[in-house]
Design goal:
The protein has 1 helix and 23 strands. Strands 1, 2, 3, 4 and 5 form a 5-stranded antiparallel β-sheet that branches. It has 301 residues and is mainly beta. The protein has 3 domains: 71 residues, Immunoglobulin-like (Sandwich), CATH 2.60.40; 92 residues, Immunoglobulins (Immunoglobulin-like); 84 residues, Immunoglobulin-like (Sandwich). Strand 6 and strand 7 form a beta hairpin. This is CNTN4 protein. Pfam families: fn3 (PF00041). One of its GO terms (molecular function) is cell-cell adhesion mediator activity.
Length: 301
């Protein structure tokens, strides 16, 4: 930082820049004869990249020299990394996320520091120059790439970077995202039919909500969850209460979205004997197999 004019204490004010390679004894000095100067460039074509120097700056005017600043260590300009990261691995986490990891390159640290890594990810039918880019900071050696297309082949490559630029890219690795879920369902007060289009076995997670309705000042509720991979499940419901049911499938590819909320109105004794009106709702779905949930009112509850 420059010295304010009110602290220069005389005419002919300037700076003395002293520097030496780290670990040496003798100082080199140069004079910067402008009170407004805020930098000095030392040029030496034989100077290795990222060389450490000790530097201190003093002041002078027509009356003589002042004191020097504390010594600090600065580095000559670094070069971009010259080697690529190694051992790049990628694995699919879900239909939209993959994780990529790598090992740092064997780098000559006298040429520069690695400040982070750039991960490039592009779909097989896309051009590499249009790849999604994610940058990490520091020595982090893994990251997650999100918002990808399900059941798609992706290529990923990693390269290190610093203030001078990015280094060479690793060899690309391939990963295929998991298959997404699609579903459809039809519902009525007594039965829920769920169909899933999926070639491989998977589980279904059934969210079953017991909701008791009281005046607002005295509202209570409880929730039960049933997880099953069977082709049907039967739920027993007590009389004189309303119910909300949601159905949510999941597999290795991740969770599907929940069905529309299915409201089961209070079941009277007359309804239990087979009389009364019936209501139904529907939500979109798709599938190879059918799962049926039978809703049965039992007086023992």
């Amino acid at each position: 930082q420059t010295v304010p004019e009110e602290l220069q204490n005389g005419g002919g004010f300037g700076y003395v820049v002293a520097f030496r390679p780290l670990g040496t004894v003798s100082w080199m000095q140069t004079v910067v004869a402008s009170p407004d100067a805020a930098r000095y460039v030392f040029r030496n074509e034989s100077l290795p990249p990222f060389s450490p120097y000790e530097v201190k700056v003093g002041v002078y005017n027509n009356k003589g020299e002042g004191s020097f600043s504390p010594v600090t260590v600065v580095y000559s300009a670094e070069e971009e990394p010259t080697r690529a990261p190694t051992t790049v691995l990628a694995r699919s986490l879900s239909a939209s996320d993959v994780e990529v990891s790598w090992a740092p390159p064997w780098e000559n640290q006298h040429k520069g520091r690695i400040q982070g890594y750039e991960v490039r990810c592009w779909r097989h039918d896309e051009k590499e120059e249009n790849a999604k880019r994610i940058r990490t900071v520091g020595n982090q050696t893994s990251t997650k790439v999100s918002n990808l297309r399900g059941n798609a082949l992706y290529h990923l490559a990693v390269r290190a970077y610093n203030t001078a630029g990015t280094g060479p890219s690793s060899a690309a690795v391939n990963v295929t995202t998991k298959k997404p879920l699609s579903r459809s369902c039809q519902t009525s007060p007594r039965q829920v039919f769920v169909q899933i289009y999926q070639a491989q076995p998977f589980l279904f997670l059934f969210f079953f909500f017991f909701a008791r309705f009281f005046p607002m000042w005295n509202r209570q509720s409880s929730t039960s969850v049933i997880e099953t991979n069977k082709t049907s499940v039967e739920l027993s419901l007590p009389f004189e209460e309303d119910y909300i049911i949601e159905i949510k499938p999941f597999s290795d590819g991740g969770d599907g979205s929940s069905s529309e909320q299915i409201r089961i109105p209070k079941i009277s004794n007359a309804y239990a004997r087979g009389s009364g009106s019936s209501t139904s709702s529907a939500c979109t779905l798709s599938a190879l197999s059918t799962i049926m949930i039978s809703l049965t009112a039992r007086s023992s509850l």
